[in-house]
Write a structure and sequence with these properties.
Layout: H1 15-47, H2 52-66, H3 70-80, H4 90-116, H5 119-127, H6 132-162, H7 174-185, H8 188-218
Helix pairs in contact: 1-2, 1-4, 1-7, 2-4, 3-4, 4-6, 5-6, 6-8, 7-8
Length: 225
Amino acid sequence: MQPYYFSFRSIYPYLGDLAAAAEVTLLLSLLAIVLSVAIGSGIALMRRSNSRLLRFFAGLYVEVMRNTPLLVILYIVYFALPQLGLRLSSFNAALIGLTLNSAGYMAEIIRAGLVAVPSGQFEAAFSQGFTRVQLYRHIILPQVFRTIYAPLGNQFIAVILASSLASAVAVEEVASWMQTVGSSSFRFFETFIIAAVVYLVLCQIVNLGRIAIGRWLFRQPEAYR
């Protein structure tokens, strides 16, 4: 059996398509992150609600999303919803599936931050005449943000990596580029390496940004004001 020789020359014509695929991956990931943080915040507050019904449905949502593979969720959104009359583009279906899945994890991260705040601070704030909005804005959220900052950054990276499954519903992102170019050029190892490097670069950008922002925020208390 002859040894395998790496050659990236046949991949060069496809690098233009790779840039477009990376843009799709980045856009999909950023939108999913923003939407999942918003939904996850609402779910986390529901889990802390005095209403037993809200707590039940919020807990049910979290358990379903955290215990269902993302690929299954994507298939349900992309293939099953059209049977009910709701047709979505591949990008929108991937965005919805990725957002719903990530929101389950975001909710637990944010809830953990809320639980870490001593209950006495809630009582003290209300006794001083704070409204609930003022309480969360000036007292609770700054503490929660500091607590969840690191795990939140890790979840952002997880969303970027999970976006690779969007290729299963025909989204033309990096993983889809990898499969297409590998099949066309028969240089699968080379395309695997290039795709891995792209995901590594994207994740490192997020990680370095997280570190830089964390140093700026947490070493300058006035940044919270």
